[in-house]
Amino acid sequence: FTGSDFVDWLYKRVEGFKERREARKYAGHMLKLGLIKHTVNKITFSEQCYYIFGNITLNSDLANLRLNEEGETDTLGPLPAGAGAPWMPP
User: Using only C-alpha atoms, what is the Rg of the chain?
Assistant: First the structure.
């Protein structure tokens, strides 16, 4: 799945995100914990890249996943409008 599709899914289906950027940040935390994995093992989350699910079974880190961690800042802006997956209608 693409990072953009994943962020969209999180934002629409998981309660608690006030803005889409919060869902993107949460996806980045999931990548850090190994709950999702980049297809070529990059360590930073990007909406333009492809991901697979990592090991989410019996992972104690999942219970401790938080939206905001101390000292973290979001440095990426959202994708421009209409920049979703090319195979999906706008």
Answer: 13
